[in-house]
Amino acid sequence: MVVAEINRTLPASSAAPHKKARLTMICDLMGRYASDNEAEGKSPKTIIWYNDLLKQYCRYLEDSAITTDVSAINRDQAKAYMLYLHNRTRCPRHSNPPAPTQPPLSPKTIQCHIRCLKAFSTWAFEERYTSENRLEHLKLPKAPSVVIEPLTQAEIQKLISSIDKHSPTGIRNHAILVTMLDTGLRVAEVSSITLANLNLADGYVKVMGKGSKERIVPMGAYVCKVLWSYIDKTRPRPVVPDQNYLFLSPAGDPISTNTLKLMFTRLAKTSGIKRLHAHLCRHTFATNYLLAGGDIYSLKEILGHSTLEMVVHYLHFTNQQVTTLQHRFSPMDRLYDDAPNRTVNSGKAPAGDNRLPPARLSRQVLPSLHKQSK
After folding, report:
1. What is the pTM of this model?
2. With b meaning 16 or more CB within 10 Å and e meaning fewer, what string describes 335-354?
3. How many whole angstroms separate alpha carbon 360 and alpha carbon 222?
4. 3-state class of 104 per DSSP?
5. Span 285-312, average pLDDT
6. CATH class label, 153-373
7. What does the alpha-carbon distance between residue 201 and residue 104 come to, in Å, rounded to a whole number?
8. What is the spatial distance between Cα 123 and Cα 33, in angstroms, rounded to a whole number?
9. Which of 34, 55, 128, 229 has the fewest other C-beta atoms within 10 Å?
10. Phi, psi of 95 (to 5 degrees)
């Protein structure tokens, strides 16, 4: 269905090419590229994302009076496109000329544009639309590695207390928040949870992640208790009985990813935590999982990453806390025991650090918040 929708927006030669036709224009090949991506099992979101980025690249070529023939793709052309992206604003076509207040593209966004272009170049070569993959050795533009601070214990307390737990919507939102903090699930994964894939007795949920990869994610006892209460007392009857999604709107419809994002936008305002967004719950879970003694290999499986590359980033978030833990287990201090009164040896966080101590979030923090909210 995704490919069919994309084909409606493409030229006729691209959407339904004649078998003997040999297409060479990038815009004419986008339909076939989308079909191959769907056949490989890529998610609809990824397919649409690739299509949108390629459209932007074609517009750049046309506006620059450069041929859109796929055989003309080369490193010099790609580097010129990088420079264009560096000087481009986020919404170049929404105002003419662009308003000076519009922010520029972020380095990560520029990386995504070039990564998409490299992937398309590789596909064109493998499908023999080009004689060589000229972007194979093109390096991605560098992007600064930004350390994302996880939510502190005080911030989590503010989030919990800012939710009205006496209204059906508030009870649902509270259940969503603690579930995301305790499992690290993505927004799309949370919105697609069904009762059939939820096992509260054994404390886990089965979700379908990126790349159509199914995995089992453990859940703490407190979150299971919150979900039991939500299902038993608050969850509305679904409009379609066969679609037993866990989280529903007041009308009984499955909630969308946009509903979840809007929920966190409102939570950021009511709690005063302006930096809050849905994905920050995932960062917070991963950081505290490592602080609790979890290893990066099991964390990779829980988060649904295919490699350790993304998981290793979370190690940087825990540098300060890991240093504190290492002081507790200093070999010489333990041998001579002549520094028993050091703050770090008590297992407490240093002054001014109100992050979660090395303990399971679901076992210590969330139950204490539950008691305070009564």
Report:
1. 0.72
2. eeeeeeeeebbeeebeeeee
3. 11
4. strand
5. 88
6. mainly alpha
7. 49
8. 8
9. 128
10. -150, 140
| Owner of token pair 């709107």 | 249
Count Cβ atoms below 10 Å from residue 147 Cβ, excluding itself: 10
Q: What is the mean pLDDT of residues 299-316?
A: 84
Residues of the chain with CATH 1.10.443.10: 153-373
Query: Any idea which fold 2-126 has?
Result: DNA polymerase; domain 1 (1.10.150)
Strand partners, 69: 25
363 has pLDDT over 70? no
Could you give phi then psi for residue 94, rounded to 5 degrees?
-85, -15
Q: What is the CA radius of gyration of the chain?
A: 25
Query: Out of 40-44, 138-142, 274-278, 326-330, which region has the weakest mean confidence (pLDDT)?
Result: 326-330
The two structure tokens encoding residue 323: 């240093």
Give me the helices (H) in the chain, please. Answer: 2-8, 12-15, 26-39, 44-63, 75-86, 107-126, 153-161, 168-183, 187-191, 221-229, 257-271, 278-291, 296-303, 309-317, 319-328, 331-336, 366-373
pLDDT tens digits along 165-214: 999 999 999 999 999 999 999 999 999 999 999 999 999 999 998 877 89
Q: Is the confidence at residue 232, as pLDDT, over 70?
A: yes
- The rounded Cα 221 to chain-centroid distance in angstroms is 25
Closest to 268 (Cα-Cα) out of 278, 258, 259: 278
Residue in the block written with tokens 């939102």: 173
